[in-house]
Amino acid sequence: MRVSNLMIPAALVLAMAACKPAANDAKTDAAVATPHPSAMPVALTDAQLIERGDYIVRIAGCNDCHTPGYPESGGKVPKAQWLVGTRLGWNGPWGTTYPANLRLKAADMDDAKWLAYTATLHTRPPMPDFAVRDMSEQDRLAILRFVKSLGAGGEPAPAYLPPGEKPPVPFVEFNLPPPPAAAGAAQAKPASAG
Ligand code: HEC
């Protein structure tokens, strides 16, 4: 009895002490608990969307492939030349792909068309279409608004070449090992394999 009489008030004091700072820090806690701040449904102004789009194309690597000379110059390409697509081919088992002119692409699209297009974007490698599909709607919209703010510019990228067709230079070549399934088929199947 004596012990529990002492325990109850002690527990209450502890609970009250725990509540006080929690109430004061409610704002901070909410911010920390949000796993993906950019996915929050906060309405951005037009200017803020453009600013965010500018930020995303820099950190998500869009410029790395879609802006001529961007990686080679350490990102020192004037903004007016961003995202016009390149003539550097990406050659691999999928054939040869060329990073598209996103300035011309964006000029052709309104918000609704772009959001539907990017939500289900499927391209050939090495375009990270999966990363675009995973972006929040707001981030995809921010990209469109930023690219549109640059204006239409440049030429369309060269046409895709099918596998087996040797691309003209310059191109990056992926010399990949055979896929695991093909490699496995070439060997005797272990007894345990279905
Ligand atoms: C590793 C290089 C690379 C990176 C990084 C990259 N792209 Fe691409 N992108 C490509 C290539 C190559 C194609 C052409 C794919 C094809 O022909 O199927 C392409 C195609 C596209 C297309 C389709 C355009 C069309 O008309 O077919 C869109 C949209 C696009 N990229 C947007 C982006 C955005 C937005 C980013 C940044 C998040 C990005 N890309 C990052 C290489 C890249």
From TrEMBL:
Keyword vocabulary terms for this entry: Heme, Iron, Metal-binding, Signal
Cross-referenced InterPro entries: Cyt_c-like_dom, Cyt_c-like_dom_sf
SUPFAM superfamilies assigned to the protein according to its UniProt record, in alphabetical order: Cytochrome c
Signal peptide: 1-22
Lineage top rank: taxon: Bacteria
Domain Cytochrome c residues, every copy: 48-151
Region (Disordered): 171-194
Amino acid composition bias (Low complexity), ranges on this chain: 182-194
Name recorded for this polypeptide: Cytochrome C
The organism of origin for this protein: Noviluteimonas gilva
Taxon lineage: Bacteria, Pseudomonadati, Pseudomonadota, Gammaproteobacteria, Lysobacterales
